C-alpha cells in the first residue's frame, strides 16, 4: 500500500488533494464503497472509508468528482481486478488534525487526431 498526501495516479485515475470543494459540488448518498472509476471490463477503482462523495453538474463533465476524508482516517483506493492490479493507495492527510481533507478525482485524457478522449486503462 502506498501512502499519498498530495497527488497520485492509479491507472487512468488521478487523485489530487485540493483546499476545498467547488461551490457547485453535489453530495451523493452515503455508501460503504464508492466506485470512483469503472471499466467496461469490470476492474473498478473503489474508495473505502469515505466521509463524503461529491460530483459536479453534467455540463462540467463526467470525468471529475470528489472524495472527502476525515483528517485522521485515510481513504483507501483499491483496484479490483484479479490479475495485474494497480497498487492500493492510502489517501491521507499530512496533518491529521486538519479535519476534513478533500480529494479531486479525475479520469485522465489523451489527445488523439480526432480530439480528446478518456484514457483506457
Q: How would you describe what is shown here?
A:
0% of the residues lie in helices and 50% in strands. It has 121 residues and is mostly beta strands. The chain has one domain. The strands form three sheets. Strands 2-3-11-8-7-4 form a six-stranded antiparallel β-sheet, with no helix packed on it. The two termini are 20 Å apart. The mean pLDDT is 83.
In short:
The protein has 121 residues and is mainly β.
Order of strands across the biggest sheet? 2-3-11-8-7-4
Structure annotation, total helices: 0
Cα gyration radius (Å)? 14 Å
Query: How many runs of DSSP E, i.e. beta strands?
Result: 13
Question: Any key phrases for this structure?
Answer:
13 strands; six-stranded antiparallel β-sheet; about 120 residues; mainly beta; globular
Task: Please give the structural blueprint.
Elements: E1 2-4, E2 7-10, E3 13-18, E4 26-27, E5 33-37, E6 44-48, E7 52-55, E8 64-70, E9 75-80, E10 89-91, E11 100-107, E12 109-112, E13 115-118
Parallel strand pairs: 1-10
Antiparallel strand pairs: 2-3, 3-11, 4-7, 5-6, 6-9, 7-8, 8-11, 9-10, 12-13
Amino acid at each position: 500500500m502506498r501512502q499519498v498526501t498530495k497527488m497520485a495516479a492509479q491507472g487512468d485515475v488521478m487523485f489530487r488533494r485540493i483546499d476545498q470543494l467547488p461551490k457547485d459540488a453535489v453530495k451523493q448518498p452515503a455508501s460503504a464503497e464508492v466506485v470512483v472509476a469503472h471499466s467496461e471490463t469490470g476492474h473498478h477503482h473503489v474508495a473505502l472509508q469515505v466521509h463524503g462523495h461529491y460530483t459536479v453538474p453534467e455540463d462540467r463533465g463526467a470525468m471529475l468528482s470528489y472524495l472527502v476524508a476525515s483528517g485522521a482516517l485515510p481513504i483507501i483506493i483499491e483496484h479490483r481486478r484479479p490479475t495485474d492490479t494497480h497498487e492500493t493507495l492510502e489517501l491521507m492527510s499530512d496533518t491529521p488534525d486538519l479535519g476534513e481533507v478533500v480529494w479531486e478525482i479525475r479520469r485522465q485524457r489523451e489527445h488523439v487526431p480526432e480530439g480528446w478522449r478518456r484514457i483506457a486503462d
